[in-house]
Design brief:
Length: 135
């Protein structure tokens, strides 16, 4: 597998936050979800699955929201390509980001709250500079 530096990434164009589950909001429960998204050449989310979630309500809310998210397409050698991105989603009743779990054993990369890791479908692994610095 070859690691490639990217001048562009799956930049978020539209990502409305998930609706906070009422029960968790009322009880001031915080948590996090990490989603694996398959993004098409047109920037639409084709598939969304959960890699990690602190509870099922947060998972359902994040998956529902992800279906409407839009990205600039991933560019591989200048051409739009289908790709995968791991996206952290925090649910917090205070204005701070929740710490992310150590997912190295599950997905092979570390995540931080600023960036996800992207895997290009066309040969090799593509990682954003922010994530590469944490590896």
């Amino acid at each position: 597998m070859r690691v490639v530096a990217a001048g562009t990434s799956l930049r978020v164009l539209k990502a409305a936050p998930p609706k906070y589950p009422k029960r968790d909001l009322r009880n001031q429960i915080s948590g996090s979800v990490v989603l694996k998204l398959v993004v098409g050449e047109d920037g639409h989310v084709l598939e969304a699955s959960t890699v990690y979630a602190t509870n099922k309500r947060f998972e359902r809310a994040a998956l529902k929201a992800a279906g409407a998210w839009r990205f600039d397409p991933l560019l591989v050698d200048g051409a739009p390509a289908r790709g995968e991105i791991y996206m952290p989603v925090s649910f917090s009743t205070v204005m701070r980001r929740m710490p992310l779990p150590d997912l190295f054993e599950h997905i092979g990369v570390n995540l931080n709250a600023e960036a996800g890791a992207m895997v290009a479908e066309q040969g090799g692994q593509l990682i954003t500079p922010d994530v590469a610095a944490t590896l």
